[in-house]
User: Fold these one by one.
Assistant:
Number 1:
Amino acid sequence: MPSSPELSIVIPALNAAARIGACIDALQSFEGTKEIIVIDGGSTDNTVTLAASRGATVVSTTPGRGSQLGAGAARAQAPWLLFVHADTILDTGWANEVAAFIGCPTHVDQAAYFTFALDDFSPAARWLERIVSWRCRIFALPYGDQGLLISRQLYGRIGGYRPIPIMEDVDLIGRISKSARVGLKSKAVTSADRYRKNGYLLRPLRNLVCQSLWRLGLPPEKVARLYR
């Protein structure tokens, strides 16, 4: 693996016991990891125990992904930050790709994200993956479940994650120039449970409506209520 700077990995979590163990296990393959920080928003299951048993630093805070991500970044110590959702598992090969990215000095002013994938073999899942691939190819617009790799220097310059209850990922990526958003080939395999529960058509439509309302200026708190 190429020599590279150290990396702090931040995982926001809330009742994520079903997946967080596998999430952290997949992250152990990167030799340059300085720390794995799980920011727990008040889990009532075994999330904290499972994370701690795998060597992660667990910090408890109030729930809210934006504030949790911000708290994790504030605590992290490495020059590079990787944000990963607790129900996402990075596929084989991600560590080499990340090492190559952060080992290149010119990438300090860029941010990278992984290829969206779901742990579902249904045709509906493949359809959604193609839609996300098109969105990223045309607009370079990843969502939080694709992870975000960013230098602390760039993260600080754009102001980091804001403590908003929804759209924290779109808000942050929008402050990075489109030309500085880099897609990686490695997959971020995310749980499809929410799509199986809410529908492969209904949930993306709801996401699109909420994002549109947010871009039109509706306060994030109201968008969050509509989303729920």
Number 2:
Amino acid sequence: MEKVKILLAEDDINLGSLLEQYLVAKNFEVDLFNDGVKALQGFEKNIYDLCILDVMMPKKDGFELAKNIREHNQIIPIIFLTAKTLKEDVLKGFKIGADDYITKPFNMEELIFRIEAVLRRISGMSNSDKSIFELGIFSFDSNKQMLSVDSKITKLTTKESELLKMLCENKNDILERNFALKAIWRDDNYFNARSMDVYITKLRKHLKEDPRIEIMNIHGKGYKLILSE
């Protein structure tokens, strides 16, 4: 099994070296850069599975570096290391497209836990290669974005299709609201959350011909697609 390759951008030489050694000991492959400019040059020359970026760095800070990385790659996981706990910084990180952040000082084991959680989430998304779902009287083709029953075919929008696919993949389980927002809208802000509510309403209308199908609101958590017998 190939090692996961990590780009680590950290300007504190001691912390950077300590992190590099620890991650290598945990069987990751690591390239360490001590400023944002060098890190971007490294990213452009190599292929990585995950980026860990310190927010406060000389020449190019972590936020700017993340923006540049996102211009090259929209899906590579990014974890921010930050000494700040300001809500604005956390929100800024997620708006840029961060998958997670960890506040200094942190426990090394917590960092490993965050890395593994993000990689599991991304792997789950990339491995979901099933495209045809049978849902009560409906057949749903997520690749063609078509929902069909008998001879009636409904063409779904991209977001409708992505959301319905995630619901189908998590049928009878809770689809976490924030996870769906980050996966489909790339940001779990208030406006995107309201937008997702609208799409859930649209999906309910598309599926109303089969009364056994229900998309439940799970308060404070997300949604659950249920098909009753």
Number 3:
Amino acid sequence: MQILSDKVIFLTGGSMGIGFECAKAYANEGAKVVIVASSWGQVEEAVERLGSEHLGIVCDVSNASDVEGAIHQTIEKYGRINAIHNNAGIATPSKPLHQTSDEEWQLLMDVNLKSLLFTTRFGFEELKKSGGCILNTSSLVGEIGQENHAAYTATKGAMNALTKSMALDYAPYKIRVNAVLPAGVWTPMLRKWQEEQPDPASVEKYLDEIHPLGYCPEGDVIADACVFLLSDKARFITGTILPVSGGAELGYRSLR
């Protein structure tokens, strides 16, 4: 049985990386997926791969009118929204705080955090009707920090706190709100971060070793957890900040 059968999932940043892995997993479990991303070429390619029953929308998630329009397009096509997955995000620059420009700071805040304000503002009434849920793609660094990545970690720490507050605010409407926390996951965004490091060649070994399970995964491991959290099997789970991290946050470890 498909556990997301006939659900309509509004997925930001769904055209590549973890987002597209989630889109594929949702479609495989019977959902109608609305892929929302900023590049038409990537949106078009993603929808072609998923199938014609799905929808692609070009949208700047940091722009209120773009998000409002995307929500309206979704309702016009499907008549409802059962879940909003806030997955869109950027990870650069990789710098300490004092080296971060005003423009870099603001862009990270707008894309990674303010986008949740817009999707919630414009999607709330539909989620209230459907008894739906919200899922946020956060990061383990929002809990444990990360060297030379201050502004990014700030957005993810804020997202984790916001997830808990949203869960409390929307529980009376039977809207669940959760977040997933990947550690390292091979995506185009992580590859870009790798290139910004002083010794890019050492990054793959480093990323394998920070996960006690022994490897840095692809995005399908995150997608599987997201399927569960958006399904009725997670019907009594809200306000959860779920690490999908191979144990990267666990304790002191012996030298290898």
Number 4:
Amino acid sequence: MYKRNLQILPEYIEDPSVNLIVSLINLMTSSKIMSGDPQLKDMTLKEIKKKFKENNITYTIYPTKDGRLKIRKPVQICRKEESDLLIELFRYYYGHDPDIDISVQGIYEEWIKYFKTTFVDTGHRSSLTCERYKSDWNKYYAGSDLASSDISNLKASKIKTFYAKISANETLTRRSLNNIKSILNQIYDYAVDHDYVSSNIARSVRTTDLICREEDNEDLVYSDDERYRIINQALKEDDVFARAIFLMFSLCVRIGELRSLKWSDIDWENRTVFIHAQIVRRKGDDGNYYFSYVNRTKGKKKEANRIQPLSDEAISLLKKQRKDNPFGEYIFMYNGDAVKTNTVNHHLKRICEKVGVKYLSSHKIRFWSVVNMSKEFNPAEVQYMAGHLDPATTDHYRKRVSRIGGVDTDKWNELYGLAK
């Protein structure tokens, strides 16, 4: 109480006891701010000297006529205390105070707070992404030698060794390894932006030579026959979930985009649907998860919005759905809210079991759509309809067309057969 109130009192207060208290408080506060605990300062001084020695940094301290200490090279610094002198020299070489934790762990803690406030809290990134980063950090980085390393001294070889260790014996898929790498890449980006390091060496570390576990379902996709059996069963059941599954098989959409569709997105005259939003799951400040409508697709830019045509069957299905749900906020609703992804997948699994098809999640419906478009349309058209901002993403699907469907037998025989 005294500290908070007395600091704002003018110094000319006549009561000497009050002045004494103010002076003592100011002295203690100033001492704490300027130099901290003497033992801590001695420790910092030892750490500074040790770091200079490790990095072959040499310096000479000269006394001045007025009793201060001075360094002339590489920069002129003059201070009363040796510790203050070396702290300034430390700042010169490393761009920050020696008491700032610039271990990989320390920078991670700064970065993850920045990521949440800058991207998650503003709705630009999902809270699930943030939770995945935290989970991967705790599983792979936390407690490791790399995490405790000074980021300004970390070598690319040590990062490579770390990746090789966690992926040894094919314990990780390539996708998992890339997700783990992306955390360190972003930590380094943050460190560069805050002048802790001058460059991002993490992005230069090559891991293509590391052997990763093959993903069992990487190329799994519904076949045309399986799609036909699923949508025919959906037409028989004809409830809100079956209709959602049917429409998803009639478009090229993500499940979050399908859930976010509103009646205003349908252009009945031109028989098209405007895909420009998604429903995402986020974690609130209370620790609970909730669903949120965001007016952008996964691409997060307007370039990822697209208009897709509707088939005759899709128009017919939507008319039925509008009759059953004419005033709902979303096209596909259940119990007063947009249908849930897990519930759609549950009904998809049940339909698959009925018609003897191996169940794949609703994401694989989109996979089927992009792969089959890649057989019929040019890359630019596929990229637009799929809502891909990066052509490389579209090319990723196009490459799988050849792996899934093989090559044209007639062309193969023509190329390698005996001339007649």
